[in-house]
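Supplementary notes for students who missed Thursday's class. We covered one full example, reproduced here. Read the sequence, then the structure, then the short commentary at the end.
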Amino acid sequence: MLVKRNKGISAAATAVIIILIVVAGVAIYYLYTSSQSQQYSTQPSSTQTSQTSVTTSNKTIGVVFDVGGRGDLSFNDMAYLGATKAAQDFGLQVIGLQSPTQNDYVPNLEKLAGSKNPPVIIIAVGFLLTDAVNKTAREFPNQKFAIIDGFVPGLPNVLNVGFKENEGSAVVGALAAFVADCYSNKGMGQYSVGNVLGIPIPVLYKFEIGYKWGVHWAMNYSKQIGKPIHNITVLYKYTNTFNDPTVGEQTALAQFQQGAVVSYNVAGATGNGIFKAAQEVAQGKTMGPPFGIGVDSDQDWIAPGFILASMEKRVDVGVYVATQLALNGSWNDYMQKHQGSLQLGMKEGGIKMSDVADVQQFLQIAAQAGKTLNATDIMNRIQEMRNKVVQDCGPVYDYANTLANLIKTGQVSVPYVVTTDALNYWRNRLGG
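Structure (token representation):
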């Protein structure tokens, strides 16, 4: 049995509806995927973060960061990574503008779009910039924009970049199920996994159902390979906040107390409390169980030894492909054919489960952001944990990657849930 702890709960509310349209088979994806095998350089060709003036050439990529800004080790840094890779490959420069507050979104977008030689594309990082992009794109109809995780419908100069988080959630759900069965058999849990979610909005439905679907896939697959696991229960809770780690910690502790061996972060900074909870339950041990699963960026480094893996949402890929579209002359045709939506999943390299090589790359980004980290120690602890999990539980990472390959090749399809009707249907079907 795992331990308990109680703390007060605070909640912050926000809402966004992201309408996502699934598209497939775009040639530019394959062009990017082939280049993705080369490690990114985190050094930009050129940067500028001045809030008072912008001098650009017609060979630039503009990036307007969310309030998290550079150094967030998440969306903003990943967007910058993609922009610098595109800049290197296509002979461009990067112009990055910080946004200390949400009031800076429109001025920053207007500075770039209104410059003498505007960028080939302006990237808006995050759904909070949706209204600002909607306004600025109408003011500058000849300027190309791309917004990450936002939705600005009906404008031919705005590309809406989204991700198939359901696919990655299924893969880490499968991993969680195998690990939960393993350690529950060792008396460290009760055949369950956890899921700490933020605000109940459509984009999070994809995570919730994808994760549950992956757990069920693991139970079925285990029978096919002659190593059946027990029925795994998914404990999940929407916390109604994305920025309260204390709430995430309390929620994860409650799940661990109920027997969960693993809990999945789908709550941003709130979900980071999972990792603290796992360390607390471990009572001085250097690795789990219990474990957390990271989200969006590669979070394995945050609590090495206590994070099984991360469900990576490769914003850098979205930025790269959007820039490629803006440059190769196919923007108008693509926008018309796909209603302004670019969706990236596992096949396109936009979604993946983290591996040790990803951790190494992300530690470089962390160092660029000014974090003082012992990269060698972190890498060793992560590798040691993975080795111990495989020693205890068998090739569980291979099992999860089997599902990833089935998704990539189209042999299985993970439910894509963004409506309450679909959500209720799959909850009834999968349990919960």
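Commentary. The longest strand covers residues 260-266. The chain has two domains: 27-163+315-344, 165-312+355-430. If anything here is unclear, bring it to office hours.
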